[in-house]
Amino acid sequence: MLLCGGSGTRLWPLSRKSYPKQFVELTGEESLYQASARLLSGPGFAAPAIVTAADFRFIVIEQLATLEILPADILIEPAAKNTAAAICAAALALEAREPGALMLVAPSDHVIPDAARFQGAVVAAAPTAQAGRLVTFGIRPDRPETGYGWLELSTPSPDFAPEPQPLKGFVEKPDLATAQALLAGGMHLWNAGIFLFSTTAILEAFGSHAPEVLSACHAAFEGAEKDLSFTRLASEAWGALPDISIDYAVMEKASNLSVVPYDGAWSDLGDWQAVWREGNADASGTVTTGPATALECKGTLLHAGSEDQQLIGLGLSDIIAVAMPDAVLVAHKDRAQEVKQVVSALKAQDVAQAETLPRDYRPWGWYESLVVGERFQVKRIVVHPGAALSLQSHHHRAEHWIVVEGRAKVTIGEEVQLVSENQSVYIPLGAVHRMENPDKVPLTLIEVQTGSYFGEDDIIRYEDVYARGQGQKG
C-alpha cells in the first residue's frame, strides 16, 4: 500500500500542493512514486493499493500505466487526515478483498535504490508479521540526523542484519546533541515510516488504541462510492477523523511491535539538503541539476527547473538555489528543514506560487499559462492521444484555439469540425463546446481567452469521460 497524498512543502518551489514531489522525476527518469511502485512489485508482491487525494487520482493511474502496473485499488481521501486514517482505510479495503492478508505500507516518495536488498528485508519480516506482530523497518543511521524520528532496539545488532526483534521504543526528532548520542550508542535506527502487518493485527490495534479512527474509517469505507476505477471514501464520515499519524495513534501504544534493521541506502528526500546528499557531487561537493553552472562553489546545490533559463552560482558555499519558472529559493543548506515556513508565509500573503505550479495536470493532459492580462489570458494546452476535454461552457470568457501540433476534433454547439496545424477556431462566450485529440500523437494548441474572469472554476461540465463533477478539477 502506497501513501500518495503528501504535499512535500520542504521541497518548495519544485514540490507544491498542486503537484507534489512524489510525482516529479527528481532522481532519475522515473518519478519517486513510480520508483516506489517498481520497488514493491515482482514475485511475492501483490498489485499495489494507493491512497491519494482526488486531484491526483488520474496522475496516480497514468504514472502506473507507464510501468504496466495495474493497481488493486485506489482510495480517494476526501481530505488529508494523516497516516492513521489512510492506513486504517486501506486495511479495511484489503480485509474486504483478502481477509488476514499481509499489508506492506510505504510512503511513495522515498528513495531505496537497492530493490533486491529491501525486498529481502521484507521477506525476512513476513513470518513475524504473520504471527501477529506489527513490524516497522528502521534504517541504519550514518549521521546524527535531527529531521527524523528514531527507533530504539531491544538488543544490539552489530551488523544491522534484517532480523526482526522487539522494538523497545520511539524517540521523537532529537536535538543535535541527542542525535549524536543516539548515533554513537549503536542501539537506534531511523524511523522510515514503513510497516508490515496483517490486516487482522492492525485492525485489532486500531480497535484497542484508536477506536475513534477505526469507527470513522468503517463508516467512510461502508459509505464509499465507486468512481470509474477509484473508490471515493464517504466525505462526511471522513471529516470526523482526527488528524493523527499512525505512530501516535497506534504504534507508540501497542505492545506487539517488532523492528527490522535495514542497512542499505535510503533517503526520504525530505528537504533540499537530502536532495543534495543524493546527488552526484563534483570534487567540491557541489551538485547541479538542469541548465545550472557552478563557478568556485562548495557544498552547494543548484537546481534549474526549466530548460528556458540558466542558473549560475558564483563563489557560493553551502547554499541551496532552486529556480523554477515562477519562483526562486535561495537558502543556506543548514536551513533546509525550514523551507516549509516559506510556504506558510506565502500562503498568508495569498501568493499563488505557495501551492500551485504554472503547469496544471489534468486527466486529458496539461496546460500552462503563458501570459495573463487584465482582459486576456494565453495558455499552451497539450492533449494526450485519444483524450478529450469535458463538454463545457463558460459564463465569463470566450476562447480562440490555434492548433500548432497535431489535430483537434472540436465541437461547438451542434457543429463538429477537425482543426489542423496552423488553423484556428473561435468559441463564443456561453457556447457549449468540447475539444478532443482523435490521433495517436499529442495535440498542442495555443488558447487565447478574452473576458472578465479566467478562473478554472468558470467551467460548467455537461459530459465528461473522466466522470468529474463541477468545480476546478471535479
How would you describe what is shown here?
With 474 residues, the protein is α/β, with parallel strands linked by helices. The chain has 3 domains: 2-262, Spore Coat Polysaccharide Biosynthesis Protein SpsA, Chain A, CATH 3.90.550; 281-346, no CATH class; 359-463, Jelly Rolls, CATH 2.60.120.10. 23% of the residues lie in helices and 31% in strands. It contains 11 helices and 28 strands. It has helices at residues 32-39, 57-65, 82-97, 115-130, 176-185, 199-209, 211-222, 235-239, 246-251, 272-278, 339-348, and strands spanning 2-4, 49-53, 73-77, 102-107, 134-139, 150-153, 165-171, 188-198, 225-227, 230-232, 257-262, 287-289, 292-295, 301-304, 311-314, 319-324, 327-332, 359-362, 365-372, 376-383, 391-393, 397-405, 408-412, 415-419, 424-427, 433-436, 443-451, 460-463. The strands form 6 sheets. The protein has a 6-stranded antiparallel sheet with strand order 18-19-20-27-22-25, with no helix packed on it. The chain has a 5-stranded mixed beta barrel with strand order 5-8-6-7-11. Strands 12-14-16-17 form a 4-stranded mixed sheet, covered by helices on one side. Helix 6 packs across helix 7. It is globular and about 75 Å long.
